[in-house]
Design brief:
The complex is a heterodimer of chains A (about 80) and B (about 200). Chain A is mainly alpha-helical and about 80 residues long. Chain A has helices at about 5, 10-15, 25-40, 45-80. By secondary structure, chain B is an all-alpha fold. Chain B has helices at about 5-15, 15-40, 40-60, 70-90, 90-100, 110-115, 120-130, 130-145, 150-155, 160-175, 180-185, 190-195. The termini of chain B are far apart. Classes of the chains: A mainly alpha (about 80), B mainly alpha (about 200). The interface of A and B includes residues 12, 16, 18, 37 and 41 of A.
Chain lengths: ~80, ~200
């Protein structure tokens, strides 16, 4: 037992009942912190931008290109 | 570091939501109590608690594998409190609000309200009268039970500095009690301790 453990004043302080935040606030804070944890795990902004914007646009352009090529091909065949 | 603390550190580093919940449930009331005793203001302590957990969530994945979770969390809370005080010093509106805030000798502090005995209530009042640095070291070491080395890491001071600060804080706390209160707590009354 240390000197601190033997101090009756500190011992009395340690046995004080816990004070917690209200239930609704507790849950609200839990949700906010969980959202922050998820956000922190997301990729970096540049990677996020690439994934959300560049990739879909590139995919659309590629598929658009194929569509254009296919349409031209059909028209050529019909004309031919 | 005990088993659950090690598991929690690994879970936080992996961003596991379930582990974060466990840590939140285990430490929320302790961190809140620490902030409440520092600020003496429930609404402010709630705001600082929120900032503490948001910062913890942001930093969780960067936690070092050998971190002591308890000291890490209290360190974040300490930094949040210090930032708040720094900011409050230059914010005139807050300074005015702080001036309007009742002194500890006025209405009861939240811990006084929750105290189960009159003696405990008076002890909380005496703690509230200490300056914030002394109050903080008493809360970390005596109330929260942090090892002195961990408390020194939280406060970013050398262990020798912490020991000195703790001694001065204990003396100041004893000094803030009346002889009757000291007797009731099993400590010698003030005059008996004079050389």
């Amino acid at each position: 037992m240390t000197d601190l453990d033997r101090d009756p004043v500190l011992h009395a302080l340690k046995s004080a009942p816990d004070v917690d935040v209200d239930g609704w606030r507790r849950e609200n804070l839990r949700h906010q912190a969980q959202a922050e944890l998820r956000r922190a795990g997301d990729p970096a902004p540049a990677a996020r931008l690439y994934r959300r914007v560049v990739e879909p646009v590139a995919a659309a352009l590629v598929s658009g290109g194929w569509l254009l090529w296919a349409a031209q091909r059909v028209l050529t065949l019909q004309g031919g | 570091m005990d088993g659950s603390s090690q598991r929690w550190v690994e879970g936080l580093r992996a961003g596991e939501a379930g582990v974060f919940d466990e840590v939140y449930d285990a430490y929320r009331a302790r961190i809140f109590g620490y902030l409440l005793r520092l600020t003496q203001d429930r609404a402010l302590a709630e705001d600082l608690l929120q900032e503490t957990w948001l910062r913890a969530a942001r930093a969780a994945r960067r936690l070092a594998p050998d971190s002591r979770l308890e000291a890490w969390l209290f360190r974040i809370a300490h930094n949040v409190f210090v930032s708040h005080r720094r900011w409050a010093r230059v914010d005139l509106v807050r300074i005015m609000a702080l001036r309007a805030r009742p002194e500890p000798s006025g209405p009861q502090t939240p811990f006084e309200t929750h105290a189960s005995t009159e003696l405990q209530r008076r002890l909380e009042r005496a703690l509230a009268q200490l300056d914030v640095a002394q109050r903080e070291v008493i809360v970390l070491v005596a109330v929260e039970g942090l090892e002195p080395a961990a408390a020194a890491a939280v406060l970013d001071v050398k262990p020798a500095t912490l020991r000195q600060r703790l001694k001065r804080a204990r003396d100041a706390l004893a000094e803030a009690l009346t002889d009757d209160e000291r007797r009731a707590l099993g400590r010698a009354p003030r005059e008996a301790t004079q050389p």
